[in-house]
Amino acid sequence: MLRVVLCNCSPNESKELARTLIEERLAACVNILPSITSCYVWQNELCEEEEHTLLIKTTDKRYHAMKERLEELHSYDVPEIIALNTDDVLDSYARWAHEQTS
């Protein structure tokens, strides 16, 4: 099974995070969605930040290693790492993703 992982990060680290996950074969593909605005409360203060969203495609087998590595590399104290299980993936794409993360 494949997982799609959402992770917001600062614009200056998005490419580095994506490349590292690919180079270490922890993800098959990472899409970088630029220029989103996130609003949240951090340490009792309302924040509004420009961020990039990473859409990370990985396998169940590699997910935990990818999550640990992403948490280690990420500059935030509490990085947003949200994994979505997939219930319908094109078979040829799933095979490719498994090959890329093996």
From TrEMBL:
Name of the protein described by the UniProt record: Divalent-cation tolerance protein CutA
Gene3D superfamilies per UniProt: 3.30.70.120
Signal peptide annotation: none
Organism: Persicimonas caeni
SUPFAM superfamilies: GlnB-like
A molecular-function term among this protein's GO annotations: copper ion binding
Listed PANTHER family: DIVALENT CATION TOLERANCE CUTA-RELATED, FI09726P
GO biological process, one term: response to metal ion
Record family assignment: Belongs to the CutA family.
Matching InterPro entries: Ion_tolerance_CutA (IPR004323), N-reg_PII-like_a/b (IPR011322), N-reg_PII/ATP_PRibTrfase_C (IPR015867)
Lineage of source species: Bacteria, Deltaproteobacteria, Bradymonadales, Bradymonadaceae, Persicimonas
